[in-house]
Amino acid sequence: MKKFLFVPVLALAAVSLSCSKDNIAGEGGENASGKKEVIVFSEPQIEIGAVSAGTKTTLEGSSINWENIEYISLFNENGGSTWTYELTAGAGTQSATFTAQGEPQTGFTYAIYPQNSNVPSGAAIAANLATEQTYSEDGFPTLYPMGAKTEDGKTFVFENLATVLRLPLKGTGTIASVTIESVGGEPLAGAATVDFSGETPVMTAAEGASASVTLNCTGSYPSIGSEPVYFNFILFPGTYSQGFRFTINESNGNSTTVTTGGTAVELVAGTFKNFDSPLTIDTPQGWNIYNNFSGGENWSWTALNNAHGLAYITDVTVDDDSRLFKIRYGENQWYGINQTGAQTEIPLNTSYTIYESSGDTNNGDLKVPAEADYTGNYDFYFDIWPHNIIITKAGEVPFYIMGTNNMDENDNWLGTRMELDETTGYIVLKNASFPSDKNGGPRFKILFGTNWDNNPYHIGAISDANVQIGGKTTVGKENPRDIALPGSGPYDIYLDFNRIDNESKMSVWIMNAGEVPAE
User: Fold this and answer.
1) Class in CATH terms, 287-393
2) Which of 50, 292, 448, 485 is the S-S candidate for 37 at Cβ 3.0 to 4.6 Å?
3) In the chain, what are the domain boundaries?
4) Distance between CA atoms of residues 75 and 83, nearest Å
5) How confident is the model at residue 452 (pLDDT cuts 50, 70, 90)?
6) How far is 315 from 6, CA to CA, in rounded Å?
7) Distance between CA 324 and CA 341 in Å, rounded?
8) CA pair distance 137, 149, nearest whole angstrom
9) Residue 149, helix vs strand vs coil
10) In this model, does residue 515 exceed pLDDT 70?
């Protein structure tokens, strides 16, 4: 069986972001000037020369400019509150003038951006990095935090406190939001502390910080196409032991989940990281399984293989707490249990009929059962015409030949499990010999699932005369009889789920061993 993953593995590569804030270099380049931008304190105003980023700040080429309404806060470690300065000149440039709001004070040791009204604790101050961020086409989604300290009482050198992670998307569709989660549970944003006691200020997560951040696309949703569109997150610096999981939500309700794999990723303050290659998002085509197997509130879809009237997927990882799914064709043709709001557990290895409706809310969710002491993955088989779903433990194909090929000492028939040939998509039993028994010549039945008495596909031959060696044999549920064979074989038996004229009739290829069906 091929390993099925919901997510392709994407490599991350670091690209530098100038820690001096005078510009952001082009991808892979260092700041050419090497200059550090400073704040010069001169009452009653302070002159600012620094790169900033904010909800109203745009990224123009390789530099970040101040915008019309910006604030910084100054404080010292002797107690008391912060003092706020407002931008009064220099909007649209890297250097701006900030003027004190009210009577200016002196003796400041530290500066922080954006504005912060918290009461400092010595050389540290509580801060916050937004967990709900807003997409910006040419910039950053939220206020990009910076901190500065002085040695002479009037010159402040700003340092970037966070990092920027850039996710490139291409494909089709419009994006409503993107959520990033740290797979290892490390905090990405939220409550923080900025500590100025070291050589440079450092931002770290505080109690209550969040392991996920959502980037919302407000207004008109950005469209993705053949060229990458970048979605920029501002995150805590740090080491993320198992990488990241992304959930991309489209405006039409589709959701795709991907991860960066289990490799640790380090995010460094004052840098941004790019993916080596864009993630491609496609509108679902054909049969797909719509699920929340990866956990969380958002569901994702994964295409099913489709061969000979059977849609299937193998070796699926299902989170213990997230087992709900539906079957879907394209974007809007839904199949579930015909009970509004119900959640129906599908027994393993049992064929279960599901129903179509006009919308996903009109069907109850299907649920993968949690088997005691079982920690493996699952296979899903969907019989397209009669709309029956069968779930098994990975590798346990739920279709059986029961006949004279496998008998006990009393000539009772025993089931022989068939296999999935992933090259051709057929369900097949190869090299089976069928002797005669006390009740007659070589013969068999096809069994779907393990329950003989309550099986909607207890199929036998319509007529012995229908049996063909080297071609299709029509079988069905009407007047089920054994499929009689003209000789003992050996045979290779292939199931074909394409229906002949209705859902109760299908085809079986009975081939001499080593021969394959003619398509």
Assistant:
1) mainly beta
2) 50
3) 12-281, 287-393, 399-512
4) 6
5) low
6) 10
7) 12
8) 32
9) strand
10) yes
